[in-house]
Amino acid sequence: MRSVYIPTNSGELHCCVMGEGAPLLLLHGNGESSSIFQYHMAFFSQYYTVIALDTRGHGYSDRGTTKLNFEQFAQDVRLVLDYLHIERTNIIGFSDGGNTALLFAEYYPKRVHALIVVGANIKAEGMKSWELQKVKWMFNFLQYIEMIYPTIQLKKEIVDLMFHQINNTLFDLKNIQAPTLIMAGENDVIKQSHTELIARQINDHQLRIMPKADHFFMLKQPDIFNSVALSFLKKY
Question: Taking Cα atoms as reference points, which of 39, 178, 23 lies closest to residue 116?
Fold first, then answer.
């Protein structure tokens, strides 16, 4: 595995690269880093060149000078692909990484070969009510203590991705052309009706709800997820 640092106009984006073959981009969730994909990288690198990106403001990637938002994350994906001279890629996006993957596939449909999205949402209200209330409480708490501890700003922005920023993002999923597998756990923090709503808006989609699984099933049960994901990707 090798680390690659990709320059932006306000810092660097970090990604880990492993394997050979067609590209497969991995996008992690809120407050995480590419390190969550250690088992997935080891598996998929047998078949693909795997690129696991640290989202801006996460892991070893710089925050930059703009407030964290999904439009910027989608442009960061384009920057990474351009830097690595990748015209089209497969993408697996988990949680907030799934939101970014959907937006990128919407903006740049010809640059996505196949797409797998796990536990994504396109509105804050797509979360179950208790989870959304927890996010709102955390945001308000961080906003309050930021007046005392300004260094908490980045943490507040990361939480806000699940609140105001997702609601300020305009998704038009009908533009997505890539075959797409939409996945979620039966006991996900995302409402199943919302996951189904996302799937219905994508022309070429498959929907899979994993029984007895929660939001983090792909991390808790990587062998099962990897098998399902590889079976889907190998069709295209």
Answer: 178
